[in-house]
Design goal:
The complex is a heterodimer. Chain A is about 75% helix and about 0% strand. Chain A has helices spanning about 5-10, 15-45, 50-60, 65-75, 80-105, 110-120, 125-140, 150-165, 165-185, 195-200, 205-220, 225-255, 270-290, 295-300.
């Protein structure tokens, strides 16, 4: 269900503006991904956690939350309970950030694009992040902060989907090598393959890229005035409506399938390790979004 | 588990379970924000013998061919 909204996010974003954002998004996401992982992993090991659990938690915080947790846990051959522990911690933080990040950004009067980039950097699940980004976009539409609703969503999508999610395969491959050559050399008898980066690549990212490409091709040759007059009401607006409905059903499905009583007990140490990384992630995300690359995010999609 | 050259992989082992539906029941909370059908999972699954979650391309000395399953024996 999350795949449809992700593909829809690519709809109204033409490639030229998307391309301009790719480089900064990838750089910012890479910095955060690496630092967050290392902090969570290091704190986890120091707290006495198994290395594979620490790596699973690290990936959950660095990349794409629940999906990263199951990808990396399998890649490193973790215990069966490692993935559920990481899933629980990620869900707790992801839900909390839906509310914390938009209102923190509002308190700091961050422009829409900057707020969206911060959310993309510091949220831990795509669906939760989109909810937060859309919330901040709505705040921007009300005039409370500078920028447009689209800027918040575009910035978030570039950072989270294009910048962070694609790291899943890379982390899985690297950690598989480390697990099989350093942690337990005779454990599983398999040699990690570079193809793992592709096998585990979140294929829905292509939906976003294809949608952006289609919009770019369709709108080529239109001036800005013509685009706003004819393309926006006949093409962009209906796609946005479709996006809204897709996410309504997405979050309805999430709500109907989430049973907090059935979540695995995470334990204090895994939660502390993840939280240490989350705090660092939020701080670095703010610095990169609101200071280092602020000029880029403020003018995104204009 | 040992590494004594090429061995049959977990994907063909009777102890291995990687059906997406099964994993969604075993991993609490997986279906909230993800799915057992996601490409990121590749072909990973649970080893019931060692209580591990690992790649289907893994192997170990406790390999048991799937054909030894009671249901398969009846066929």
């Amino acid at each position: 269900m999350v795949l449809a909204p992700c593909a829809c996010r690519g709809g109204p974003a033409p490639f030229p503006s998307g391309l301009a954002g790719f480089g900064v998004a990838c750089l910012q996401a890479s910095i955060v991904s690496i630092v967050t992982f290392l902090v969570i992993y290091w704190v986890g090991v120091k707290l006495g956690l198994d290395r594979r659990l620490a790596a699973t938690l690290g990936a959950g915080g660095a990349v794409c939350g629940v999906s990263a947790a199951i990808a990396i846990s399998g890649a490193v051959g973790g215990k069966k309970e490692d993935a559920p522990i990481a899933i629980t911690v990620v869900i707790i933080w992801a839900i909390a950030m839906i509310f914390v990040l938009p209102f923190a950004a509002l308190y700091l009067h961050l422009p829409a694009g900057v707020g969206g980039a911060w959310i993309g950097t510091s949220e831990f699940a795509d669906a939760a992040g989109f909810a937060a980004a859309q919330t901040y976009g709505n705040i921007a539409s009300s005039g409370a902060v500078a920028g447009s609703s689209d800027q918040a969503v575009f910035a978030y999508t570039l950072i989270k989907v294009v910048g962070r999610d694609v790291w899943i395969g890379i982390w899985a491959f690297v950690l598989a090598i480390i697990a099989t050559t350093q942690w337990e050399r005779t454990e599983t008898g398999r040699k990690p393959e570079a193809a793992e980066i592709w096998w585990r690549f979140p294929k829905f990212v292509f939906g976003f890229l294809v949608a952006s490409l289609i919009i770019t091709l369709v709108t080529t040759g239109y001036s800005l005035a013509e685009f706003n007059k004819s393309v926006v009401p006949t093409l962009v607006a209906p796609i946005k409506d479709l996006r809204t409905w897709a996410f309504i059903f997405c979050f309805l499905s999430i709500g109907l399938t989430t049973r907090f009583r059935e979540l695995a007990g995470a334990g204090r140490m895994p939660f502390l390790a993840f939280s240490a990384g989350a705090v660092v992630n939020v701080i670095i995300g703010f610095i990169l979004s609101a200071i280092v690359f602020a000029a880029h995010w403020e003018t995104l999609a204009r | 588990m040992s590494d004594k050259g090429p061995q049959p992989q977990c994907r063909s082992c009777d102890h291995f379970r990687n059906d997406p539906k099964y994993l969604e029941t075993v991993f609490e909370g997986l279906t909230s924000l993800s799915s057992g059908y996601g490409s990121v999972r590749s072909d990973d699954g649970v080893c019931l013998r060692h209580d591990r979650y690992l790649s289907a391309r893994s192997s170990c000395a406790d390999f048991l061919p799937v054909t030894s399953h009671p249901i398969a024996q009846k066929l």
